[in-house]
Design a protein that fits this description.
Helix 1 packs across helix 2. Helix 2 links the parallel strand 2 and strand 3. With 208 residues, the protein is an alpha/beta fold.
């Protein structure tokens, strides 16, 4: 996952929770988008030898695409870049390199969102250095300021996305960033409900 509320052409995340624009897709919406993404890949006649999911956000999309394309050859690369809500290190680093041979293989590189593009570019270079013959990128979301444009994506957005597989992590980061800035946990919870997060799920993550 490479998800921020800013990029090369945008300012840092605003310190006001009210001024941050979120998109909070449901499991059903995400699943539909990944199915449509798989159809797009299949129609392009690109037949990857290996599907590589970028940890951690790319794992679930990669698994669903694997199912849809009938390709069980999955691998993983882990990248570290984002530290907090909209806060990054100076550059991404690979924590877990590719563990199988990709030499002379066609690779479909999958992530949930391509934001700055720096992480996916790093992994693309890593795979090329390992001998991959062809690399194409698939992402559910793509942000217009990215230095990399995926060959396949479902939606362009400028919003901060909270995926259904990272709700607890996102809520924790939001609390860390905004609690104490004249905001109580109850205030933050109510704001997140307004943004579309399920109140029952939030109850288990935010204690009064």
């Amino acid at each position: 996952m490479e998800n921020s509320n800013h990029g090369e052409k945008r300012k840092a995340v605003n310190n006001s929770l009210e001024k941050i624009d979120f998109e909070i897709p449901s499991w059903k919406k995400i699943h539909r988008s990944i199915l449509e993404l798989s159809v797009e890949i299949e129609k392009s006649n690109f037949k990857p030898d290996i599907i590589v999911g970028m940890a951690r956000g790319g794992w679930i999309p990669a698994r669903i695409i694997s199912d849809c394309l009938g390709n069980p050859n999955l691998a993983n690369v882990s990248v570290e870049f984002y530290e907090n809500l909209g806060e990054t290190k100076s550059k991404p680093t690979i924590k877990q390199p590719i563990s199988i041979s990709v030499r002379n293989k066609k690779i479909l590189l999958v992530d949930d969102v391509v934001d700055t593009g720096k992480s996916v570019k790093l992994v693309e270079t890593h795979l090329r250095n390992k001998g991959a013959s062809t690399i194409k990128i698939a992402s559910v979301y793509y942000k217009p300021w990215s230095i990399v444009i995926p060959e396949y994506y479902q939606k362009e957005t400028q919003l901060w996305i909270i995926f259904p597989w990272e709700i607890k992590e996102s809520v924790k980061k939001i609390l860390e960033k905004f609690q104490g800035q004249n905001r109580t946990r109850k205030d933050i919870k109510n704001r997140l409900i307004q943004l579309g997060l399920d109140s029952n799920i939030l109850e288990s993550f935010i204690k009064e």
